Amino acid sequence: MARADAPSEPPPLNPPAVVLGVVTTNLLDTSEPLPLEAARQALRLLPGVGADWRAYPVEQVVSPDLFYGVDCKLPGVRGAHPRAIGTVRARAVLTAGHVVQGSTRVDVVLDASNRRMPWSYYAARVGAVEAIRKADPAELVSGFLTARRQPGLLDLGGIGSRVMSRLDDIPQVDGRLGMRTEASRLRWAVQVREGEEMGAEVMVGEDGTFRVAMTAPWALVPDIVEFCEILALHQWLLAALKNAFRRAGSASAPMDELDPALSYLGHLWNPTAHLPTATAWLWAELEVDAQLTWGWDSTLTRVRDKVALLTRKAIEGTLLKEFQ
User: Fold this and answer.
1) Over the stretch 122-156, which tens digit does the pLDDT of each residue have?
2) For the chain, how big is the Rg over CA atoms in Å?
3) Sign of the alpha-carbon torsion through 228, 229, 234, 239
4) Across residues 39-50, what is the average pLDDT?
5) Among 118, 154, 203, 295, which residue has the least CB neighbours within 10 Å?
6) Domains of the chain: which residue ranges?
7) How far is Cα 314 from Cα 258, in angstroms, rounded to an integer?
8) 169-178 exposure pattern, b = at least 16 Cβ within 10 A, e = fewer
9) Can you tell which superkingdom this protein's organism belongs to (predicted)?
C-alpha cells in the first residue's frame, strides 16, 4: 500500500526570506538493492522515529529530518558574505532500494537580530539560520546558485553527503557495487513571497547539473523540495547512463560497463511517480525545453542496441570457432 501524504510542516516562528537547498545523488554502495523492509529499517536515522515510505509505483523510503548546527558565511555577490547561525535540515531518500540522496535545506531569516544570540535561541528555531548582517534576498539566491565551495561558506552539499554516508555501515550494504558512478549535486533556492504564485527558472551550471531558482509562498516549500529531489534523481540517472555508454565505447570489455548500467539503472525512470501536483507544470515545461525523457529513452535504446550487437558478435564468434 502506498504511503499517505506526509503532514504539512508547521509555519516557522520567523518567516524566512529565502530557502536554500542541495540534493546530492548517487548509487548506494551495494551489489543488490535493499528490499523495502530493510530500507525502512536502514533509514530510521533517529531513535524511535520511523522512516516515511511509499511502495507504489516506485519504492521510496525517506528518513526523518536530522538537524545540524552551523555558524558560517552565506554565499553572496559583490564579495559580501553575511554571517549566518542556526540549524540545517537534512534527510536521506532511498529510491528503488538503490539510489540514495542526501537532501538538505535551510530557511534563511533576515533582519531578525544584529548580534549573536545564545545557542538555545537558535536551537528553538530548527531548520533555520539567521543572518547577522543585512542581506538582499535576490543576491543570496544568485550567490548560492553560482558560488564555488570555499572554507567557511555554508556547505549544504557536504551535510547531505554526511547523511548519505550513514547508510554505508548497515549490514545489507556489502560494498560490492558493480558500476562506476559519480555523485551529482543539484542546487535550488526559493525567494519566499506570500500571496504570489509559484515561479521558476531552471538553469544549467558549468558542471552540467541543474540550478533551480524559484519564487513561492512558504507553504509550497515542501512540494518544491520533493520536486528538486525528483529532478536531481532523474538528472543523475541520465548522466550515469550516458557516462556508462561513453566508457563502453573505449573499453576493452564494453559489456562490463553496459551490463551493470542496464541492471542498476534501466528500470528506474519514472519522473511523475511521486511528483507533487503543485510542481507538475514545471516538469512539463522541462520536458519541452530539456526533453529529459527523450534523452533517457534514446540513450537507453543505444545501450540496448549496443548490447544486442555485442551479443550477436559473441555468438557469431563462438559458432565460427566450433565449425573451424
Assistant:
1) 888 899 999 887 788 999 999 999 888 888 899 99
2) 22
3) positive
4) 91
5) 118
6) 18-220, 238-322
7) 15
8) eeebbeeebe
9) Bacteria
